[in-house]
Amino acid sequence: MKHIVINELNHFSYHDAEIQEVKWHGNDLIFFVSGINATTTNTQNSYCKDMCIDNATIVFENASIESIVFDAYKTYDSNKILIKSVEAEAATEEEYADILRESLNRYCYIFSMDNYKKSTDN
Where is pLDDT greater, at 55 or 111? Predict the structure, then answer.
């Protein structure tokens, strides 16, 4: 069964969503994902529980990447002694395509779409 949902990113749960492929098609950024859930508030979910979706396509029309930031982190040994501290680092625009491509050589998950910004431009 094929369902189409428009402008309902907040009506999906992404806790198990794995990105299988990312590609640009013109100005559209396309994510091919598995393991997302249509929540009970999603217009295409008629069930009383979240509905698991094995494979989905998410299209961001006229997309642009505002930034890619690698989070800061600290590593401690078992005695709680700091071993390593890494500051947050922003990628350059020239690195974006390589980062998207390389991220798919590992497991790549969507944890949230909370920071997604919808353009107000028409």
Answer: 55
